[in-house]
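Issue: copy button drops trailing tokens. Both records pasted manually instead:
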Amino acid sequence: MVKVSAVVLVVLTFCFGFAYVVGQQVMRSMADDPQVEIAENVIDVLNQGQDPQAIGSATPTDISNSLSAFVLVYDSGGEPISGTGLLNGDIPAVPRGVFDAARQKGEGRLTWQLQENVRIAAVVKPFSYNGEDSSSEGYVLAGRNLRETENHTQNLLKLTIIAWAVALTASLIIINLLLMGKKEEYAREHEHHHEGEHHHKH
């Protein structure tokens, strides 16, 4: 019984743990989808010669609190130019390595932790415009607060634990019932065997 229970525990833990990890990764990946579209739309505008300084908003998004998506534009050196989102009143700086990776791969996706409780799903893409009268190049970062996604992930974890506990309990009950049935069957066979020996002696 103990060995069987241990095997069931390991198998169920692996299966539910794997399901949770897959679900968590899918939700995190889906959190990038809107930013990909936003970044590409902004880059299309910039590649047509739009002044990067014009990418802004009269009422910037507070990155630390708002769930709205935002766009930030940086020059080729990684210095902020403009944007629709602010953190503590300023466009936040991005680690240089993020831009280097985006330049090499054509795109960068990351979880950007700006403060202890501020995590952003960010997509970074390079842009370059060379016109007759002007030229510009740099990077577009589209981001969105991960708060809701992380809440969904926590809910998924809770549901996974509950489902794991229910499945484990049900499995142990079924195993116990099967073992009890086998013991009763063995007892009956043993009893019939003794009765047969008793009649044979008589």
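Record 2 (pasted manually too):
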Amino acid sequence: MLAVRILSLVAIALAVLKAESAASPPCGPRVRRPYSKLTATEKETLQLAFEAAMLQGHHHRFVTVHQYSLNEYEAHSCMFLYWHRRFLWGYENMLRSLGERFKCLTIPYWDYAGMSSNQLDPNVTCDSLATCNPVLVDFGASSISNPSSYVIGGTPGTANGGETISADNCVHDPTNPVTRSFCESEAAFQSKRCLRCIPRGNWHNAQIAADTTLASMSNQIFASSFAELTKNLMYKVHPKIHANLDGAMGTMSSPSDPVFFLHHATIDALLSIYTKCQAPYASGTDPKVFPPSDWNLFNNRVCGPYVFRPKSSSPRFSLSRNSMSMLYYNGTTDVASVDVGDPESPLAQYFSSTSKNYMAYYRYPQSSTISYDFTDTGFDVINSNCEAWIGGSYNSTESSAALMKDIKKTTSKQKKHRDGPPLPVVKQIDFTQNVYKHTKRYIKDDKKAREYVEMMLCVHRNECMGGVFDYSAEFKKSFKWSLSPYCYNVLDDIAQGRKHIPVPGWAKLIMETYGCRNMS
């Protein structure tokens, strides 16, 4: 009789497993899409996944990995793009492990070209990072001012004692999963004394930089080498988003805010466009994807195969001279020596599918099934046509006159072009192509012509879109940064007579299309 009962229980268990398997089909390809294309249910699932990561103690452990001083030598130097590609991949793996609802989740990217198109267009009512795209509002953007300082990460009283950051407000919205469960350190998590809020700047006042325009991002992506691409992204669009959002995002504690992962999904998407367009047939040692000249000094940091290489706790976990410096830092013992994927790391399971070696990251392996969908976004024209996009004419199904007439009717609620991206994006594509063609009448060198178009938009940003400003002292200190933003340097060069824009009539072209919304 007992045997019958055991067999019955086994039969029931098998039936349940079979039913669960039937009700839960395997995930398809891992396609990262723009946040704006997610359904309401998908957005809710993403927010709940971030909260689950915080509640289970995983989220703050990723923060300490990014924050750890020895990891920084490669994370913000020669391996900036590949280091963050692995970091993003591991974090996404972690989110997918949190439960049945999250198992097929992918981290979306942020359509910066769409965002800049909205701000440029005088017919669209928006003027900040929060109001010109749906990401930040959905993630709890607040304009409340209650300045204070907070310590995130690390072990108090040690060499890695965490980072003190200033913020306009520590955002806690009891209705928003993203902001209500944040824990700032392992010590706080173990003692159950978490902040339960995220230190942030006033995102409703945060500027949209000219580095997010199509002209600028095109110049950043279409580099002649991997070193140039790395410097372009690391010195232009990447730091401007961090600095303008401020709070935790303006520090090395930036992964504290889940918005970090959408930002870096965007940077990773730009790397994917570069690889497709500039290095489609490159091997792991090709200068297009991994030039030896990148080693040694880069961004004032020593970088390369001999810098803080992780130790292995197991013969089965082999490391080589090309192993990435991504050490697990536990935030309790102040010791970090093993790779995040090492068996001793509590994050090991999330990095088991990720390679330890630099040369594996110029493109995702086929087994990962990771790709990006740029359909109907501001990036679509760049990804589809590569560098040639700027010299073309946007292929609209409507005449240009009819399109412009329709654009004039656009309000803060975006109307969509019938077969493509939103109308403000179409407008920016058309504008950029026209200004480039005008510039080429006077400047024969293609690279210089593209740079002059970008410089024009810096001037417009400064005089008509609220001004261009240097990074704050706090941001430079946290990021160990001595540089100023691209547009800030361009404007200084123009003011000092070191540069000028030798293209007659360029200002008139900009004013006819975009006008001067906020003259300064």
